[in-house]
Amino acid sequence: MTDLSFFHTPGSVAVIGASDNPDKIGGRPIEYMTTLGYRGALYPVNPSRPMIQGLPAFGSVDSLPEVPEVAVVAVPGQAAVDAVETCARLGVRGCVVMSSGFGETPDPDGRRCQEEMLRAARRTGMRIVGPNTQGLASFGSGAVLGFSTMFTELPPADGPVAVVSQSGAMCSVPYGVLRRRGVGVRYAHATGNDADVSAAELAAAVVADPAVRLLVLYLEDIRHPAAVEELADVATSRGVPVVALAGGRSAGGRRAAASHTGALANETRVVDAFFERLGIWRARHSADLTAAVDLYLQGAAQPRSPAAGEQGLAIVSNSGAICVLAADAAADHDLDLATFTTHSRERLGAALPAFAATANPVDVTAALMTDSSLFGKVLPVIGADPGVDACVVGIPVAGRGYDVATIAADVRAFAQDSGVPVAVAIAQPDVGAVFRDAGLAVFDDEGAAVAALAQVRRHGEIAAAAPGRGRLSTRRPGASVHTLDEADSLAALAALGLATVAATRCADADAAVAAFDALGGVPVVVKGCTAAITHKSDLGLVRLGLTDAEEVARAARDVVDIMARNGVAEGAVLVAPMVRGALEVMVGAHLDPSFGPVVVLGAGGTGVEAVPDVRVLLPPFTAADARAAVASLRMAPLLGPVRGDAAADVDAWVDMAVRLGREMVRPGSRIASVDANPVMLHRGVGAGAVAVDALVLVDGGAEL
Amino acid sequence: MTDLSFFHTPGSVAVIGASDNPDKIGGRPIEYMTTLGYRGALYPVNPSRPMIQGLPAFGSVDSLPEVPEVAVVAVPGQAAVDAVETCARLGVRGCVVMSSGFGETPDPDGRRCQEEMLRAARRTGMRIVGPNTQGLASFGSGAVLGFSTMFTELPPADGPVAVVSQSGAMCSVPYGVLRRRGVGVRYAHATGNDADVSAAELAAAVVADPAVRLLVLYLEDIRHPAAVEELADVATSRGVPVVALAGGRSAGGRRAAASHTGALANETRVVDAFFERLGIWRARHSADLTAAVDLYLQGAAQPRSPAAGEQGLAIVSNSGAICVLAADAAADHDLDLATFTTHSRERLGAALPAFAATANPVDVTAALMTDSSLFGKVLPVIGADPGVDACVVGIPVAGRGYDVATIAADVRAFAQDSGVPVAVAIAQPDVGAVFRDAGLAVFDDEGAAVAALAQVRRHGEIAAAAPGRGRLSTRRPGASVHTLDEADSLAALAALGLATVAATRCADADAAVAAFDALGGVPVVVKGCTAAITHKSDLGLVRLGLTDAEEVARAARDVVDIMARNGVAEGAVLVAPMVRGALEVMVGAHLDPSFGPVVVLGAGGTGVEAVPDVRVLLPPFTAADARAAVASLRMAPLLGPVRGDAAADVDAWVDMAVRLGREMVRPGSRIASVDANPVMLHRGVGAGAVAVDALVLVDGGAEL
């Protein structure tokens, strides 16, 4: 990992384009560093004034008493290029170029300027953050190399959270949410155009800081997955959870991203798979970046095995309605409710008002109003129950007449003694503040509390599975591909060890009948076999369920005619036995421009495009990874034993995916894309899975 | 509709069990009414004190100077029963029984006491709210017949919103959220056990008040759908949107509800369908009850035709990232983005900084910091674009250096001039307050803003479709049902005008062969036909694709043998032609204990239980309603024209659902349940749909 720590603890900083006005972009870094305890040398550069915000100013970077370790560039256009070139020549280690109008615009001049800055930096090994960046802020050292308005609105405080973002706003917004909630923020970095240093590379440096315990990350594109992999390695080794928001999940969002930072946002399912394999939680909306932060900081997302199982959520409230609604929310998030032991229920019965239910959820009833000790009696019982691995405490109504401090202390003691994650749902901000001051994770409502618990639990599971996965392959799509016909495609899969239907390529109707006879008279399918026509069934090139020689001959002749009419003179005829009575699934693979090899598995058949039910895996992955992906499909319940039928042979399907994944990352592989659909998946141990149709593309213009 | 207005504007109120301590349950109503402007006569009843909170107290209800119009009962157990009986005898119009320990407990004494109160009330026509209720609060009149802590925590203010809830907490929580946001609340009613007056009945009275413009409703069960229908009628005629949360969507939530108010929470899909047909929005979590309230109060949920179409959401922000994320959120909610006209784009190009994109979303860029007039230039163009029907304005960062007041005024002018719903996403509370004070709908983040716009839009659509739907049938499940065998089931469907496969019931193998011959030799299915065995394929009673007489005879003999071995001596054999090459769908119907007739349609085949993709309709409904339900299925994209094949004949399927719905509400119908699965749905106009398997249950113990 490259050393970027000089951006965090620079010995000296020059601000090029420094302003005496602290509201100007060139004035903000000066104001922040002079007021937030930065101890290094600070050099305002501005040829037109002797003093800037009380500091002596300099006419140029050349005239400083020393070569600054880092420079902040706040001058526009060509002046910025000149400043960067001077810094590089002098031996400055890093520049933060805040100015805009470069690579993010369609203006060729701006793009050229960005290229020139990059070239200058690369000549001497200087690093550039930006251009078009709000800049970096390190509150541990007071080195604020940026201009975010938010540090004026909400005073910084050093703490356990780091925010790293391509976007300035998506740096400022999480910073603001965290600070308003009283959480300390150590880094608030925005990287802009990522021309040199990427958000991920900087995030890796940030996460290496032992004072950081949670990383909040916003990305608009992932041009260099390897940088994210390095970041994830550091985070995993330090046990730092990473919550990432990658904008551009939708087509509309991707269009917007393209005109924002010029980002080519990545395919959503691929990004999902990428983050999951690295143990990174993918947020969907900006609010999700910080929603569970209190639980994270309590260590609730420590890697946990999904096999922990058999435990569940306990719900306690002084409102029956909140018990009901929290249980509903748990179901929404696939969280099981804990089943209390008989012993626990007896103890709850003794503690609770007569007639209160002793099962989970526990409604201590409005009696809390007259007996504030109720939580103190009930919670230790729940904490001691072996079936409880998380707890929601809902207190929708408290205030005058309630001993809020005692209740908060009881909940706090429960959280500490039991060690299980506890989320407190409190609608009244003043009541919530008492609980927050007691060190508890407080949420506005039961829905948010349950969602956060579900997130840290699931995050702990993916984090547990992440270590030991290899790096992604560097294979990328080639310049050209060659399409194999169906017979060759099936043969290519067979060569990889995938079971394929016994298809025979026949030149004419006679050969087709011979193939039919050789199959022993079972019902067959007759298809046109040519790489030149893709959607064969639309043209009548697929004839199913043929049971006698005459039908086969007629179908073969038809198919040859149709191909000829569609300009395919040398099309062959494929004869294969019908495979029936199996589940139709699919497995595929392709090369993503950013992430390289991608394997897809899911429900198969003709509906796969219209109603997709697929999961993506990035190789290398294990059979266990593939099995987990299968288990998360919407169709998964169909794979189990149903109505007396045996479970589907998922292992056979998983094996296909593993073999494809292995091939896609094999050095020298020429497979560019595979679409095996349908794969007929049989029921019963060892019953197998067989690809009955396939389309394979290979790199380059020649045969495999 | 019964008159319940005396609960809202009582001329006189007695509080039985009045307390001098305003923190006691019997003290709160006195304190609230004396401080919140109640102008009627207020009579504390307490035999042990001459004065209560400065008012003369009375020893019993009998000794008051007049018969009070309403009494609040705060004494427990048998004393409450006595008080209610006295009130009824005296001619009190309504009692609010706050005391607990009655029908909500498993205690037979408590249940008996509740029954006695009810009997006493019914003898004289007195109405009871509760028992076990937090009580009612009418801030228009100051009549607070309840003890909610929240009115102490947050001072009431009369306003356009009414909250009605079975649960006390779920009355107090929305009240608190609304008041903290500065929204006035006219009614905050909790009804408790709903022994007499139900939450829905009270809500109908509330919605009839011309001052109410939004109803927030929490229900734990819907024992009397007719009361909700009446409420919806009033709300629809007055144009008042209703947002309802029905707890117990999950199995865990239903268990919790049963031990809370003794509620038997209803089947989720049925409740969804019930609310939708009435134009009521179903919230999922407590926060959803109030999330979109500002947009509602601006009239954004006025009934709108889904055919309005061809319009979409505009997104404007000073942050490119918020543009990206709002577009992603719009896709999550199936909201289209507006496409601006060329004219608009030219005008935007003139208004925006050079190189800023002029397409939707519009990123005015960080230039807003130096030019606060940017929104004022851009928004009128967007407001004039005919393709825009809603707008998100995202301002993630503002504050010092920004002219926030000008920006807020510009957004306000845009909202007023354009008339489209505008949701402003602002992360900084102090900045948000400026916009809220300007009368705008403000949200914490882009995700919440887009979700609220999507909600009011969809709510407007279901509200537009609601009027004119008839009342639900009062048919309910009978005491016993009789199961028809497959042949009789198919015949019963055919009698209703549903197309069914041409199945022949055969006594033996010879008859089966004759039936096969009569079908002209097409492939057939041979099945065991008996009502005594349900899962026939598990036992080998279904033989598919038989193509010659010998196969048919052998299958028929097998089937008869298997039935005999399973104790069915008189089972017949069913012979029917195979129906292939169609989509497998299903249609069904049954009688719900609370809602009566229910029609179900969805994806068919063996996966329907494991991976359900179904929608519920409550008759009476129209073909348009059924078509809308089909269009919302996950499988819907498969029904369109795919790969050259024609669209499926959805009309034929819809017609089956309509016929079933009509039968289920027909007076005298004996159909208790129908499960037609699969229905083979063919592609092509008029291609039809045919039920190939069916199970029909009829009321009573005899044949149909």
From TrEMBL, chains A, B:
Residues 6-102 form the CoA-binding domain. Keywords: Ligase. It comes from the Bacteria. This is Acetate--CoA ligase family protein. One of its GO terms (molecular function) is ligase activity. It comes from Pseudonocardia benzenivorans. The keyword Ligase applies.
